[in-house]
Amino acid sequence: MNASVAIQVLPKVEGEETIRIVDEVIAYIRSTGLNMSVGPFETTIEGDYDELMNIVKRCQLICIEQGAPSVMSYVKISYNPEGVWTIDKKVKKHHLENSNS
Question: Where do the Thiamine-binding protein domain residues begin and end (predicted)?
Fold first, then answer.
């Protein structure tokens, strides 16, 4: 694994329609089988850089296919040919703290 990507898609639609379209994007990301984590503002995915860039592209197209006239996305990319830190390494200890509260 040489990359991780955090993506937030903002389809230009009204009200609850936003949730429906974002849910379609998340379902697609989940269908890739890659390790991922859904947060309240963005979804993080781990994998090969080229594969992740194709997923980012597909996320845009899903929003349009689902009826959004346009989509704005915010993408953060961590890339290192030698490997990047995993989602678990970065946040597991914080999730354990929350479960003990």
Answer: 5-94
